[in-house]
Each structure stands twice: as C-alpha cells, then as structure tokens.
Amino acid sequence: MSLDASEIKKIAHLARLGINADDIPEYSRNLSDILAFVEQLNAVDTAGVEPLAHPLEATQRLRADTVTETDNRDNFQQVAPETESGLYLVPQVIE
Amino acid sequence: MHQKTLVELSAELQKGSCSSEELTRACLQRISQYDGELNCFVTVVEQQALAAAQAADARIKAGTAGPLTGIPFAHKDIFCTRGVKTSCGSRMLDNFVAPYDATVTQKLLEAGAVMIGKTNMDEFAMGSSNETSFYGPVKNPWDTTTVPGGSSGGSAAAVAARLVPASTGTDTGGSIRQPAALCGITGIKPTYGRVSRYGMIAFASSLDQGGAFTRTAEDAAVMLGAMAGFDERDSTSVDRPVDDYLAGLNAPLQGLRIGLPKEYFGEGLDAGVATAIEAALDEYRKLGATIVDITLPNTHLSVPAYYVVAPAECSSNLSRFDGVRFGYRASEPKDLEDLYTRSRGEGFGDEVKRRILVGAYALSAGYYDAYYLQAQKVRRLIRDDFMQAFEQVDVIMGPTAPSVAFKLGEKADDPVSMYLSDIYTIAVNLAGLPAMSIPAGFSDGLPVGLHVVGKFFEEGRLLNVGHQFQQATDWHTHSPQGY
User: Fold this and answer.
1) ∠B461-B462-B465 over CA atoms, to 5°?
2) Which of residues 348-387 of B touch A (CB under 8 A)?
C-alpha cells in the first residue's frame, strides 16, 4: 500500500491538518512505510475473533443523571484564545 | 543526600534529621547545576515547591505525615497542574496553564509530596527517544550523546541523574518501562484502569496508563500506592481496592514460576543485553524461582497492531486541538477552516502529524474494517496469548528493550525502526497488563532493564519480585558518573 501526494492531501484535509507542500513527498514515503509495516495484520486469520476494545472487557460505567459539577466557565475560558461575554470567538461563519 | 532513596529520605524527614525545605532546596540546586545540559525539565516551580515543602514540614511536626510527605518529585508534563503550564511537550500547549489538577496531581499533593517541576517528554507522548519534544531532546545522564528513551524521557533522566528521588510517567506502548531501562532505574506501569486518566492528556485512551519512576521497587511501591485508586471522573477507572504494596515486598520468591517467552530472545536482541538478562534470571534461580519456557506466538503482530490502534485513537483524541477553546491559535485566520487547519499545522510537530494522518486514514470510510477492526481482533489474540501463558506461570520476564540507549538522531528519520525499540513493551499495553522495568546490569557501559510482566492487578507481586532482586543485587544503586 502506498499513498501518493493527492491521497496525502485528502487525508490531511479530513484531519483538518495543515501540511507544507514541500513535506508531502516525505509524508508520502513515511506513511507508505508505516502502512506497509502494518499490512502484515491482513495475513492473520481472524475469522470468528471479536475485536477487543477494552483489555478487561469492561463496559462503560454509567452514573446517576444528577448535577455534580459547578459552573467553571470563567476559569476554563481564561485559557481560551478569544472570548466575549462567555462565548468563544471564531472567524465569521455565516455572512 | 541525593544518593538516598525515597524511603530513606522519608525516614530522615520523620526523624527530623533533615527538613523537606532542605531537601527541596537541594533538588532545586541540583537541577540548576545539571539540567542545563540534560534538559529534563520544561518548567521548574521553585516558589511553589518551597511553599509546599514548608507546609510538609509543618505536617511532619504535627504528626500527620505519610510516607510521601515532604518528598520532592518531578511530574511528567502530561498531567494537568492547576496554575502551572502543562505543555505535553508540544507547541500546541506551550501557552496552556491548566485550569484544574489531574487526579494523580491531586492525590500526590494530598499525600504531601512536593512537586518540583514538570518534565520534558516526546510531544503528546509520541516517541521512544524524547526527540519529538518541542522543547528539544533530553540527554541520557549515562552518556549525553545518547537518548534517555521516551516518551517519559525527562522524568526518567531526572531520577537517573539524582535530581529528584521520584517522578511520574505515562505508558502507552512502553513510555515508562523503556526509558526506565535506558536510564538504569525502576519504572512501573500498572494494570489499565488502576491509575486515573482524568487530567492526563490523552494520546491513545484504550492504552494510556500512568505510573512512576524511582530508583528502587520499594520506592515505587510508595509512589504507586499514592497514585492508584478508583476515580469516578475516569470512565475506565476500575473500582477495586488498592493493595498494600509495601506489605508484600518481603515475601520470599521460593517457588515463583517465571515464564520466558522464546519470542523475546530471537533476532534483533543485542547480545550484551541478552547476557545481562540471562545473569538476572540466574539470580532469580538462586532466589528459588523456576524458569518455565513459554510461547507468545502473536508477539510479532503487536507492533503493527499498536501502530493502527494508537494512531487511530490519537487522531480522534487530538481533534480537540482546534485553536478555539485553548492552546495554540494561528494568527489572522481567514475563515474557520483556515483557523483549524493552520492552528493544527503550526501547533503540532512532525511525528504527531504523521500519527494523526495514519489514524485518520485507518479510520476513514472504506478502511475502518481493514485496519482498526482487524487490529482490535489481533489485539484479542495477543491478550489471549498472555492469558494462556499465565495459566502456567506467575510472572513473565525478558529484556525491556532490544538494545541499550541509542545515539541521539540515530533513528529520528526512520519511524518504523524507532517503533521497533518498543517491541517487548507494546504487547503489554494491548493486553492491559501491569509491568515493570528494573536495572539488571550493563552492556557497553550503559544500563540494561529487566522487564517483568504480571497478571491483572498483581502490581504488588511485581514490586515484590523487583524488591527481592534488589535485595540480592546492587544494579539499582549504580549512578551515572558526574552526577
């Protein structure tokens, strides 16, 4: 399996990850190496094997639907790049 | 003073022969003397540490101290610390002052431990050499032209160079055990779910687990005892009492069955490392253990399975870094897409980008079954190998890493070769088992680590097995020259 420049660009777009055009050949080489390396998994017969999501087979613990947290908005927004009146600011989305 | 272990220092503090403030000043002094070269610390919190030390001294005087009260420690910069920069080794979080404490941070502070600073690490814990850090590589104090291992390289090197008696780490594929081995110290990764992941910046959630670095297994018992325990705020935390790790240390090893997987002694293992491991096994025979040959037939699939599962989870976890709520934001974004794309492109380093791309690819439409699902199936085969082996043996041993510390830059351009330096540790994360690395001699003048893997929740047994070895040998007392 090898990934060409257009595939690298497509994946980078899916991940919303800016990459330099100059670096694309290297990503292409590195990613192709990694995919070639993991390719050996496909040779394993896993018919009838259930995927293992949690080593102890634990399932998601549920808690009672009650309020347990206090309002921490001001504290959390102190580390935000840009806020106004308790809202996070981003570039205009709708004209 | 810096040559004393955590437990010895704790006894000194209790006796009153030294104060936590003196101890803390001594650590700060050693950091200012040696860390310019080693680069273990991203942040040192001198004033906060001295205040904590004074509070610990008051607690000791009042008779309400525990074994960690007044003990300085270094905290991996992946654990959130309220009011203190928490960078995760990344430009993305270079400006991030955590607004809350991780559960591990809180537990250590409640125990009275004195946080000296935050340690350097591979960016977002992705690396095996500490070379992917935004803050530059950490040097191995045994030979400053070599790497300390990673990702918890700063934490490991700080304990090895005797800058602090203990430190925290996290281990997703070997990030505690491999640097412990390369730096000649003790490092333990407990069972998945034993230490809370709340406030521990996520890399691969089904694999990440916090643990500790110390010089001895006895010290690790104290650290892990304070860090472990159920936490409602971590959805995968296991609700089960924490064993008294110190109480079990002195159990004799007579009759202990040690499994030796033949797959761990094949091609790729350095001869010098193999010799040291053989000698350690002889020591265990003298202590009354029996060695049983076992097989873990799917071992060769663990690194490939990991490099699907971990990047997939990483690409999902790291989607939170979008330049909106915290962390790095690109300047003058022209629209929302540009804000996301450039903030992430400029905020993340190369290895992190590579893993996000691999993960995004493996999870993308049409590839999910072939990659992620298949890797999770192989993961079950790998875990089942261990389950079968543990029907015949109590612990499994082998080398922690295939070689001693390698040169800085040696593997930086070849991701797959770097990934293979975790070949013996990665399967343990996939299986969720507890494991430890302890010093077991030298090869070419550099430390070799013995890897000890236990059954689920048998951290106490691992520490016992480590402690008994350290009663019979002195490898853990060797310190790098010049420190």
Assistant:
1) 85
2) 348, 353-354, 356-358, 360-361, 364, 370-371, 373-381, 383
